[in-house]
Amino acid sequence: VVRLLKTSPEKPITLAIGDGANDVSMIQEAHVGIGIMGKEGRQAVRNSDYAIARFKFLAKLLLVHGHFYYIRVATLVQYFFYKNVCFITPQFLYQFFCLFSQQTLYDSVYLTLYNICFTSLPILVYSLFEQLVHPDILQSKPGLYRDISKNSLLSFRTFLYWTLLGFSHAFVFFFGSYILMGEDTTLMGNGQMFGNWTFGTLVFTVMVITVTLKLALETQFWTWMNHFVTWGSIAFYFIFSLFYGGIIWPFLHTQDMYFVFVQLLSSGSAWFAIIIIIITCLFPDVVKKVFYRHLCPTSTQKSQSLSAPQAQALSCVESLCCYQHGQSGCSRLACLLEQMMGQCKASVNNCHTSSRSNRSWSDTEILYSNDRSILTLSPIEASRC
Amino acid sequence: MGKAKDKSGPLGRRPDNSAFKQQRLPAWSPMLTANTVLPFFYLLALICMLLGVWLLLTVQSTQEIKLDYTELGNCDQCFQLRKNVSYAAQTCSCKVEFSIDRAFKGDVFFYYGLKNFHQNLRRYMDSRDDEQTLGRKNKLKNPSSYCEPFAKDAGVPIAPCGAVANSMFNDSFTLTYHPSRSRTIPVPLLRKGLTWYTDKNVKFRNPKTDNLTLAAAFEGTRQPLYWQKPVYDLDPHDPTNSGFINEDLIIWMREAAFPNFKKLYGILNRADASFTKGLPKGNYTIDISYNFPVQYFQGRKEVVLTTLTWFGGQNHFLPIAYLVTSSLILLMAVVLTLAWWKFGKDGKNMKE
């Protein structure tokens, strides 16, 4: 039956779920096979792509985890191509000016470290933590799943957007810097001229900052880790460049980058140019995002804007407010929370209604607190609201 | 509450219940809406406009004169002479005249410029040995193989080796001012302080002399093939400007990014009584010792005199870019305001 569905005209992506040995062939045939660990043994689980413990978990798996992971992976792929297009296109454009002799615009250390050090962590943290909408909203509104169906985030249109964005940014980086330096203008007040490594470093600096800020624009869920890696990557680039250019390296026959970065940064013109180029690149993107949000918002965006207070109420529910038979150690936290969020006392009455809306939770399920420490364990035994 | 239980039983392999592992980290969820973004746009447009106007006013105060002297006046004879390689040893000099309408106030900078000379060619840029110019003794007589074929001259190592040093620009200029028909005043140019401080003092060092003369320190090496003087004789009057630390050499070794470039030759010496305020208006001549041949690569040579501001030379791009960007931002902000007013105000579109 699954094979029949797979060959139907729309070519759908099929999912099969089962828990027994008789379901194995169906699980293997479908695109996504899910096995349930249960009374009928582990056969289904061993042959499946994903295994869950209860049938009801399928809702959360599909609507929450599936949604998040799809968005994360799709953005990861698109962003990776975008930042590498931004990286390589200025090098290509430079060839028109150096008689196609393959002279690199950036120093070889920058070539190596761009993808490893300067731009790798922000997207890594994005693809681990990004949440477009609160998970509870996703579960209560299954229709939001339609926003990402039919592989929409990896469609040709989205790919074209990211790639063309990369090319246009690269053109702005290169030609912006080229027109600024004007081929023969000095950028320093003392008349000294820059060389080609300084020019390349200017393009590279603008590029690293812009691609990182582009990802910052895409990120909708800023945890402390996102802040750390985003601003940290840019800071690391500056610190590394100062370090690398501040030493005469032994055993190297060229010292091309010696003090180049400091000279670049000491030119007021260069700073103004960096700022204007970054603004020129990112501004149209911001305008586009705001336009689309107001003129044709997706259902996900609608639920983002309206449900924020609802989400807050939910998180209050999750917190210790409801469980006034405070458990050991957590009751202190409960008092703290009640003091911080003044409305907690009132929401005790909301416990009934809110927990009903979370269909996937059962009364006996262990509920967790929204504690602020990242690595502490704090399970709380649930008590009836 | 800690890991009090042993990891056993039906809940033994449950993952940790921490905010980190359960993806419940506290986070800020910004949303780019018109209310948040529009005030920022208006502010940005205003700031860019102010900056653009300020930069434009600053740039207007710079002055620049460019003279292409490749075939100008009697430099044409030198140009024809240099077409023939066999006359390379012959000196040739010519005079170029120009006049200034408005006095150049402040510091005046004298540049030479080349057109169509690709200092950014890869093999050209690779052909140098920074260790040799750092003054490392082992590299002085043993230049890197990257310098080939400009590393050795019939078995004798070349200092400084490589194509970059070999093609050093060797025209020289003397500027004279004619306040009236009979009088001439030579314009003194400072030929020091032209390079980056780190270039002159760290990146380029002469090999250690140990009480020897500079010429003796370079014993056993030969000058590059296209040079007329050995490296220790580049500035006979000043030993701190000879050898690898010669300022013209250092400036030339910093390869330009594009084929049309200019490099600093001298700065007006305002200690002289006649030029304390800059260059007065009037007639000037430049005496050029014409050595550098440019016809092989269809190049041009020029001389540039310019005043500068704190952010550099006569470059209208920055102020124009700021003004254009600020007007674009303003335009988009207005359009966005209208769109928001009509369609999205009070979350009109956000109701499901």
TrEMBL record, chain A:
UniProt keyword list: Magnesium, Membrane, Metal-binding, Transmembrane, Transmembrane helix
Main subcellular location: membrane
Tagged with keyword Transmembrane helix: yes
Location of the P-type ATPase C-terminal domain: 45-298
Topological category with respect to the lipid bilayer: Multi-pass membrane protein
Signal peptide coordinates: none
Record localization: Membrane
Pfam family for this entry, one: PhoLip_ATPase_C
Superkingdom of origin: Eukaryota
Membrane-traversing stretches: 61-82, 109-129, 159-181, 193-216, 228-252, 258-283
Cited NCBIfam families: ATPase_P-type
Record protein name field: Phospholipid-transporting ATPase IF
Organism: Ilyodon furcidens
TrEMBL record, chain B:
Keywords of this entry: Membrane, Transmembrane, Transmembrane helix
PANTHER family, per database record: CELL CYCLE CONTROL PROTEIN, CELL CYCLE CONTROL PROTEIN 50
Residues of the signal peptide: none
Organism, scientific name: Ilyodon furcidens (goldbreast splitfin)
Locations listed in the record: Membrane
Listed transmembrane segments: 37-57, 320-341
Recorded family membership: Belongs to the CDC50/LEM3 family.
Main location: membrane
Protein name (record): Cell cycle control protein
Pfam hit, one: CDC50
InterPro entries per the UniProt record, alphabetical: CDC50/LEM3_fam
Keyword match Transmembrane helix: yes
